[in-house]
Amino acid sequence: MKAKEGVLDVLYKVVTLELTAVHHYLLHASMCGNWGYERLQHEFHEHMTEETTHVSKVIDHVLYLEGEPDVQKLGAVSSGQGVQELFNADLKLEQDDVKLLREAIAHCAKVGDFTTRHLLEEMVVDSEEHVDWFETQLRTIKQVGLENYLGEQIKKDS
Amino acid sequence: MKAKEGILDQLGTILTAELTAVHQYLLHAELCRHWGYERLAEKFQHLYTEEVTHSGQLVRHMLYLGGQPDVGSLEAVRDGRSVKDLFETNLAFEQEDVEMLRKAIAHAAKVGDFTTRQKLEEMVVDSEEHVDYFERQLATIAQVGLTGYLAEQIKS
Predict the structure, then answer these.
(1) B24 with A34: Cβ contact below 8 A
(2) Cα separation, B59 vs A23, whole angstroms
(3) CB contact under 8 A, B72 and A74
(4) pLDDT (tens digit, 9 = 90+) per residue, A77-127?
(5) A79 domain-assigned
(6) Which of A110, A153, B40, B77 is the most exposed place for a label (fewest CB within 10 A)?
(7) What is the DSSP string of A88-133?
């Protein structure tokens, strides 16, 4: 089925952002593992898996709409010297993701492509959960102090 | 622990190749799904999951060796217009990967980094399994014909 106007363009941007997020979380998972924070390593790994699922779904949908998905492009992957920096970088990434998805959702509604809109809405729910998660971690750090927070990240919950 | 000479460079090159493989197999999984070949889509999904695991292991090992892994670079992701195209492309890709890993393994042995060598050897075992898989699919296609082969890829 041929895509309505502008839908493929927004979907291509979403693919690039989601792929960048996969790389982000892959790196951050390993960094947390290297620092001894198994719980955070696991959490970042889960995030990475979710983003991979998102990418697959979007690529599948782009192909259905007779597009040509570009998996070559990547955005900048940010890093950090400590967990708090990683969280700040990831919060920004997810906020950018939510903004992009909202613009895409609005566009799809405007041109009458409700299936693509529905797919993107499912994704923005996940992205907002990620925003919430990072905001929560940063808030907890403020309340209990960084050392106490990090002490709780050593053991993965069973 | 600080890396021995040349190790981090080699690992960086391999990481770029493995990340490229993730993107490639992710794309090829969806192409196969789009063409109606669920069995192949699942196989490619399994392949990219393996490559994600390799990438994670490499990043972790590079951090342990005091390196700064670059997860932002990619080689050219190869596409295809048909299943046979994808197999030929991926066979060439995996053969290059095996060569690269073999060079890195030889270098790691030469400088006495046997832990890195061991990890790379585990990866080259997987890569050679992938070479074997693609060679086998192409051999089967040559024997039963493309349409006969593809009809078996519809149901997983």
Answers:
(1) no
(2) 11
(3) yes
(4) 999 999 999 999 999 999 999 999 999 999 999 999 999 999 999 999 999
(5) yes
(6) A110
(7) HHHHHHHHHHHHHHHHHHHHHHHHT-HHHHHHHHHHHHHHHHHHHH
Instruction: Evaluate whether ipTM surpasses 0.95.
Output: no
Q: Is B120 exposed, middle or buried (0-12, 13-18, 19+ CB in 10 A)?
A: buried
Of B133, B114, B109, B119, which Cα lies nearest the Cα of B18? Answer: B119
**Is residue A129 one of the residues assigned to a domain?**
yes
Kindly indicate whether the domain formed by B7-69+80-151 is annotated with CATH number 1.20.1260.10.
yes
In Å, how far is A143's CA from the nearest CA of chain B? 30
CATH number at residue A22: 1.20.1260.10
Q: Domain count of chain A?
A: 1
Residues 6+ away with beta carbon under 8 Å from A153: A32, A37, A38, A39, A40, A83
Q: What angle do CA B31, A29, B99 make, to 5 degrees?
A: 55
- Residue A93, chain B, CB below 8 Å: the answer is no
Structural domain range at position A69: 7-151
Structure tokens at B69: 């892994």
Do B32 and B40 contact (CB within 8 A), yes or no? yes
Whether residue B26 and residue A77 make contact (CB cut-off 8 A), yes or no, is no
Specify if A158 maps to a domain: no
In this complex, do A72 and B76 lie within 8 Å of one another by their Cβ atoms?
yes
Angle between helices A83-111 and A114-144 (to 10 degrees): 160
The verdict on residue A98 lying in a domain is yes
Q: pLDDT tens-digit profile of A54-75?
A: 999 999 999 999 999 999 999 9
- Cα separation, B150 vs A106, in Å, equals 40
d(CA B59, CA B117): 15
DSSP string, B96-126: HHHHHHHHHHHHHHHTT-HHHHHHHHHHHHH
